[in-house]
Amino acid sequence: MAAKKNNQSKTVKDINYYKKKFWRIFAYFLLGILAFFLFASWGLFGSMPSFEDLENPDSNLATEVISSDGVVLGKYFKTNRSQLKYSDLPKNLVEALVATEDARFYEHSGIDGRGTLRAVFSLGTNGGASTLTQQLAKQLFHGEGSRFLPFRILQKVKEWIIAIRLERQYTKNEILAMYCNVYDFGNYSVGVSSAAQTYFSKEPKDLTIDESAMLVGMFKNSGLYNPIRNPEGVKNRRNVVLGQMVKAKMISEAEKEKLQALPIALKFKLESHREGTATYFREYLRDYLKKWVTENKKPDGSDYDIYKDGLRIYTTIDSRMQNYAEEAVSAHMQNLQQQFFIEQKNNKNAPFVNITQKETDRIMMQAMKNSVRWAQMKETDKSEEDIIASFKIKTRMRVFTWKGERDTVMTPMDSIRYYKHFLQSGLMAMEPQTGNIKAWVGGINYKYFQYDHVGQGARQVGSTFKPFVYATAIEELNMSPCDSILDGPFMIHKGRHHVTADWEPRNSDYRYRGMVTLKQALAASINTVSAKLIDRTSPEAVVELTKKLGVKTEIPVQPSIALGAVDITVEDMVAAYSTFANQGVYVKPQFLSRIENKSGEVIYEPIPETHDVLNKDIAFAVIKLLQGVTESGSGVRLRTQGGGSGDNRWTGYPYMFTNPIAGKTGTTQNQSDGWFMGMVPNLVTGVWVGCEDRSARFKSLTYGQGATAALPVWGYFMKKCYADKNLQISKGEFERPKNLSIKVDCYQRPAIVKDTTQTEQNTDEFEL
After folding, report:
1. Do residues 629 and 665 touch, judged by C-beta distance below 8 A?
2. How many other C-beta atoms are found inside a 10 Å radius of the C-beta of residue 499?
3. Which long-range contacts (CB under 8 A, 24 or more apart) does 490-493 make?
4. 324 and 720 in contact (C-beta within 8 Å)?
5. Is the CB of residue 710 less than 8 Å from the CB of residue 354?
6. 540-564: per-residue pLDDT in tens?
7. How far apart are the first and last CA of the chain?
8. Per the count of CB atoms within 10 A, which of 364, 367, 413, 470 is most buried?
9. Rounded Cα gap, residues 219 and 208, in angstroms
10. In this structure, what are the phi and psi dihedrals at residue 558, rounded to the nearest 5 degrees?
């Protein structure tokens, strides 16, 4: 009996022993897991985000350039990403995202317990368990991570910890917004805002249900579900999302059927620095910001980074006017270019006119040395002989044409000569009272021609300089637009006004008209009158006034400047002319309204720069002189419809403006540069047209003069602006000063009806 009892107690002892051992191991296991989580949260297994990191995650946001009417003109980025608030997200996109990616999003606290257990017991075969918060944690702080299982488990633990911290730190809506801001949708678009612009060319708030469903479908794998490369797969995935929305009772079955039948309709627009709206202006602004960041620091003393700090640059550019300006330049330059190619057909040295072979070789060599090909080959230690030889070998390339890019085969040398054929243009429009720049077009195509002919390119201004001479004469000599002066032979002898030889200016048509008023003289752009006026005032006085008008380039103190032998940028010319429209007060051109940081705090506001140049009476007298140009001079075609020489290249003609317009055309020697400066009371616009090289030009005044080359751009642009009533461009009179002391209303003979074609030809001949 004793032996039997002994055996029973031994059995009982063994069971109790194993029970205790099991619970001890289980406790150690739980403690181990708790310790593992604790050590992971402390960062012992790799860095974890701090409280500050969670408050301000490294957002890497693109800086946005915003127009005065609230349109994003472009971005500066290394990662093209814009930040949206929850209120900016369309409701249908939020609903689709939650229904598809995390149905219990509003119920859990970062980790979905049910989903996690399901994934564990099914070994991941029945779907994953990552919540939206976990996916956000991965996107913000870890990325895809390792495929090695132990490291993968460690990463998953970190995701859980970070997800819980994010849920404590942010509201559900903030988490959704952050997730929509960080996902990479491919094609250089990160975040819903960039994706909506890239794939549909619209703001997120304007997305339709099927468009939102497509983007939500891409959250699964944007590389696989790329609508450009895999439209069929994207459509199938979109339809899955629509099905999930039905399950969540967000849309009806009938709505789903209707939406699933729709094709994937893209309006794809790849956002890049070289394409889009206001490309030349954005590059000009980028150069400005490079200097700005060195002079304006963050509160902690560090530098701003325009590529990742998510700044919002509010500009004075009006997106509508910018579009009209780009359309005007494109329409006219395409039209005028056809004529240029026609003229160059029989030119063996096209596009150069009347230059020696030596000069041609110099131009071509300089172009080679400025090319990307030359720089790249130089970096590989190629000799100059080898580099030059490579320019003579035919190669495949894509070239610019006005009908779109074209693939072709030609030598790099031939491509240089081909691109030298293209006429370029610069346009800037500005409000004279505020200095706000409303439109800026620096060339015909930034991708292929990156030289900015508004802010960078100073070119000879021709007769558009003459109003500065007339303004000086009115101020210094107390003259008026109605005063008469003799148009006849005139000479400034050697030694006077620093001339080194006798200077005898001639009119472009070699005619003299006898006694004319100043208004008639400027309308007909008479050279001898401008020369007589600068002789009386002195070149020094004209240069001094021109500097006060904001012209920054060096001006020679010579009488010849009266005819426009001066290089000035379009930007400076617009600012100078604006002074006349602003009653003699110069306002420095302004392209910035303010700069905000990513939190919306204003960190910079420019202070307008102004100074008095002329009294109101003199400024108004110059305006009246310039009105004569569009009433009877080289700008009269803005008001007529009779046609004339070269009228097939007057883009947008007839213009038929009836409102007051002050303006001046300009054409330089040999038709290398064509100008038109046009003003109405609240908008001053300058246009320049010419080739990159001055020796590439039209052979005659018919097409090379400013009235044909540049004025049509202004006319086309203004017709578009006037058609848009929201812009409120003035059609009224220029403001007349009270108690005007200068006679501006001159006697005019009764109008005589003449042949319109002949009138146009005659007035064109007066232009220089």
Report:
1. yes
2. 16
3. 490/528, 490/531, 490/532, 490/535, 492/531, 492/535, 492/559
4. yes
5. no
6. 999 999 999 999 999 999 999 999 9
7. 136
8. 470
9. 17
10. -135, 150
